Amino acid sequence: MAHRPPILLIDSPSLYFRAYFGIPESAARAEDGTPVNAVRGFLDMLATLIRTRRADRMVCAMDHDWRPDWRVALLPSYKAHRLAPEGGEVVPDTLTPQVPVILDVLAAIGITTVGAAGYEADDVLGTLSVTQPAPVEVVSGDRDLFQLVDDSRPVRLLYVGRGVAKLEDCDDEAVRARYGVPAARYADFAALRGDPSDGLPGVPGVGEKTAARLIERHGDLDGILTALDDPRSGFAPGLRTKLEAARDYLAVAPKVVRVALDVPLPELPTALPSAPADPDTLLELARQWNLAGSTRRLVDALADRA
C-alpha cells in the first residue's frame, strides 16, 4: 500500500500571531495603509507547509472561544492575565481586523476552516487528530499540543516555535528527549510545571526536571497523588509539603490542560484544491489587500502539489 500523504491540521491563531509579530506592519500594508502583515505571513506559512510536507489535506482550526467558561470554572487564573478590562482577549488593534481577511482568502481558495462554540482551536485540533484518517501532522507553536503526539496512528506535531522554516517534526521520542516524559503524559507534566503564558501556576518549587522525575517514577499525576497517601513512598519532606499544599490545584489543572478530543464538529471537506475555488473573489481580495505575492505563492504551491 502506498504511503498516504498527511493531513495538515493548522493552529491558525498560533500561526497568525507569529506572523503578526514576525513581520513589521510597515512591510505589509494595503493600498489604503491598513496593515496586512499577519495575513501575508500566514498565507506564506501555509504555502511553505504545503510545499515541504506534500500534504493533500488541510484544515485550519480557529478559536471560537479563546477562554472557555468550563476551563475558567475549574481554574479562574486560566488566561486571566490576557483578559481585557472590557472583556475579551487582549489582542493588538491592528491584528483583529486581519483575521476576517484571512478567512475570506482561505474561503476563496477552498481551504477549510472550522471552530466550535465553547472550545479553543486546540480542542478542535485534538478532535480532528483522533477522527481524521492518519497520518496527521498538527502545526502549532503551542507546547500544550505535544500531548497529541501518538506514534501508533501516527500523529506528529510540527512545532513552529522557531518559525515554519525551522519547524521541529516531533514524534514521541522527540517529546521524551525534550521534556523527559512521553507525549501521553505531557498534560500531567504541564500541570505540575505550570505555564505562565496560560495562567497555569503549577506547583511552586516544582520545575521541569522535578515534574519529569515524578512522572517517570509514579507514571502519571494520579499515581503521584496516590503515592502521597503512602508514608512509605519516599518523597523528600520538602517536596511532599509542596505537593500536599497543591492538592486542590492538581485535582483540576490536568482537566484544564488536556485538549478535548470530543468536540462536536460537522463533516468537513479536507482535500486541498489544485486551483482556487473562487478565482474571481481571490483576485479581488489580492487587489484590495495588496496580497498578490502571497496568494500567488499559495496557489502555486497547491498547483505544484497536484
Automatic annotation (TrEMBL):
Gene Ontology MF terms in the entry: 5'-3' exonuclease activity; 5'-flap endonuclease activity; DNA binding
SUPFAM superfamilies: 5' to 3' exonuclease, C-terminal subdomain (SSF47807), PIN domain-like (SSF88723)
Pfam family, one: 5_3_exonuc_N
GO BP term (any one): DNA replication, Okazaki fragment processing
Entries under InterPro entries matching the protein: 5-3_exonucl_a-hlix_arch_N, 5-3_exonuclease, 5-3_exonuclease_C_sf, DNA_polI_H3TH, FEN, HhH2, PIN-like_dom_sf
Domain of life: Bacteria
Keywords, alphabetical: DNA-binding, Exonuclease, Hydrolase, Nuclease
Domain 5'-3' exonuclease: 3-274
Gene3D superfamilies to which the protein is assigned, alphabetical: 5' to 3' exonuclease, C-terminal subdomain, 5'-nuclease
Functional summary from the UniProt entry: 5'-3' exonuclease acting preferentially on double-stranded DNA.
Name by which UniProt lists this protein: 5'-3' exonuclease
Originating species: Micromonospora avicenniae
Lineage, highest ranks first: Bacteria, Bacillati, Actinomycetota, Actinomycetes, Micromonosporales
